[in-house]
Amino acid sequence: MLRNNLRDEFRRGEAGTAVYEGSSGIPMRENLSFVKETFDPNVPFGVTIEERFANGKVPLNDSFNLNLDQGHTLSCRYLINPSTSSEFMYKVQRQRKIWWMRYACDPGRFFISDPRQDADTRVQSVAIKSRLGGEELTLEQLELVPADAAALEEELGDFRIKVGRTSSKTIRPSVLRVRQCVEVATLQVVLDAFESGGDASVRIHRKLAPFKCGIVCLSDDPALMPELRDLAKHLCNVLRKANLPVLDCSERNGGRSLAKQLHHLDSIAVPYCLLLRDQCLQNGLFQLRSRDTTLSETIHISDLPQYLLKIVTS
């Protein structure tokens, strides 16, 4: 679930640039032709593709590799005007660094490597990296391929695109490739959360957390517990229909105290918890607790799922 959430956030692309989802089952030039015929985009625009690989070796840094029996690569190819390609690459590399900072417990661990340029192909490249446990970890690679580079022949073929809506002029675009290994990205998120925790709380960002919310029932009257559990099941259905993954703890508390149940949710990175008590059955009010602040606010059952959706996606 964490890996899927990372995929979804990567596919959103960068603000101000249209990004379309492609298929790994067809060549890139066919993906581009489909996007061109269907959406008629202007440059710059991007196409994202996810590819699987087997028995792969993924470089973590200059000294270590990660051997994977199976893995997934996410890539986005931005087609850009050659006259503004360098500026676009500079903008995207900063945006990608900010993207990683946005979802991290320790935003200061991320940096951009020194740029490199291959003397033969003229391909410019940089990497987004992080510092973890005294080592550097390569998270993403960015490569700017010139429009006239031989490396684009197979990828683009004779593909050309209009410069603007009102212009009939077409150009052969340059390509900026952004690539990350999903498994390495997942490893980064988990290690960042554990290394930055300092306590029993695993603070994976709410947008990436596998479960967005947990539900805990507390009752002073054992006779009311079945009704609270029924309410918990109802709320689970409401939230799941709104595409919010929920962990229902109402059936599995085993007589544990509230503190232990909250500790369990914090330790598995659940960012929010609904606390259902006896009075909830009379007035419809319950508490919504935040993992990161440990503070609770009182909301009404009618506020779900809209209120939780708002704070999770903000």
UniProtKB/TrEMBL annotation:
Membrane spanning stretches: none
Residue ranges of domain Anticodon-binding in the record: 213-310
UniProt-listed InterPro entries: aa-tRNA-synth_II/BPL/LPL (IPR045864), Anticodon-bd (IPR004154), Anticodon-bd_dom_sf (IPR036621), Gly-tRNA_synthase/POLG2 (IPR027031)
Domain of life of the source: Eukaryota
GO cellular component entries: mitochondrion
Biological process annotations from GO: mitochondrial DNA replication
UniProt name for this protein: Mitochondrial DNA polymerase accessory subunit
Annotated source species: Culex quinquefasciatus (Southern house mosquito)
Gene that specifies this protein: 6053090
